[in-house]
Design a protein that fits this description.
52% of the residues lie in helices and 13% in strands. By secondary structure, the protein is α+β, with helices and mostly antiparallel strands. The protein has two domains: 7-101, no CATH class; 114-262, DNA integrity scanning protein, DisA, N-terminal domain (YojJ-like (1, 3-Layer(aba) Sandwich). The chain has a seven-stranded mixed sheet with strand order 2-4-3-1-5-6-7, sandwiched between helices. A hairpin with a 2-residue loop joins strand 3 and strand 4 (188-194). The longest helix has 21 residues, at 20-40.
Length: 280
């Protein structure tokens, strides 16, 4: 195979034709794609995106080797998928549009001062551990960037600084506030006995009851963290982005919910670059 010694010159010629506006255009598109990646990161949408990419690649191969029937079939399937995309990605699209409407599409600011955040995390962890020990069922929703006024309006307005004693009183069995979810905004409990939407995922384990399905349902529609204490087993779980992490102890629960109070750089360019092998 002959080596093209003129390639560097051709490359320099190509680069010389790119203007500052082209660089700006590429930067804007890169940022938009990065923000979209943030929205679907660690959600079920990632699997759908991978499936679409596989279909596109297969179609390109079929076009290249002149498999006309297969190419036609994939082309028609792609047309139908374009119609189905708004339905398949409904939770993610809603989340992105709400972020844009609230001016938070590019925002990731801390919610509380560090000492206040650590205090709030400690009170929630203490509450969850005590509820787990007594096998008292509970749902605690930690609001993040997306406001949950529509959810909090379904319950009883409270608005008080959170403490372990306060939260434990909310979840006393056979009291008006026990059933439903408590909504936490910053270091304040704003509402209790709230109704959450149930997940539409019918492939869940039968071990997960109504509380867990409600936690998953809300996490599919917004960026909130939902802490669940099982009434049957006392297991502590956290639902986020349509996924649930179970069997948490005090330290793992604290690590899971802390970013909701102090902000998180999990999606920073540095972290993303490191994840893709660009650093250690």
């Amino acid at each position: 195979m002959a080596i093209d010694f003129n390639f560097p010159e051709r490359l320099r010629g190509l680069v010389s034709t790119i203007s500052l506006l082209d660089y700006l255009d590429i930067l804007i598109v890169t940022i938009l794609f990065y923000q979209l990646y943030q929205q679907i990161h660690d959600t079920r949408a990632v699997t759908l995106v991978k499936g679409l990419i596989v279909i596109v690649l297969i179609k390109m191969v079929c076009d290249g080797i002149n498999l006309h029937a297969m190419s036609w079939l994939l082309e028609k399937s792609t047309d139908w998928l374009l119609v189905a995309l708004p339905i398949l990605f409904q939770p993610e699209l809603r989340r992105a549009l709400e972020h844009i409407g609230q001016g938070q599409f590019f925002k990731s600011a801390p919610l509380l001062k560090k000492e206040d955040a650590e205090a709030a995390v400690g009170e929630i962890v203490k509450t969850a551990k005590k509820l787990s020990a007594t096998k008292t069922g509970a749902l605690m929703v930690i609001e993040r960037e997306m406001k949950l006024n529509d959810i909090s309006s379904t319950g009883i307005h409270i608005d008080g600084i959170i403490s372990s004693e306060f939260l434990l009183n909310v979840f006393i069995v056979n009291t008006p506030l026990h059933d439903g979810a408590a909504i936490i905004r910053g270091n304040r409990l704003i509402s209790a006995a709230c109704v959450l939407p149930l997940t539409e995922n019918h492939g869940l384990s039968t071990e997960l009851g109504t509380r867990h399905r409600a936690a998953l349902g809300l996490s599919e529609q917004c960026d909130a963290l939902v802490v669940v204490v099982s009434e049957e087993t006392g297991t502590i779980s956290v639902a986020e982005n349509g996924r649930m992490v179970r069997h948490l102890d005090g330290s793992t629960l604290a690590a899971k919910i802390r970013p909701a109070f102090v902000g998180s750089d999990n999606y920073s360019f540095k972290k993303l670059w490191s994840k893709w092998g660009g650093g250690k």
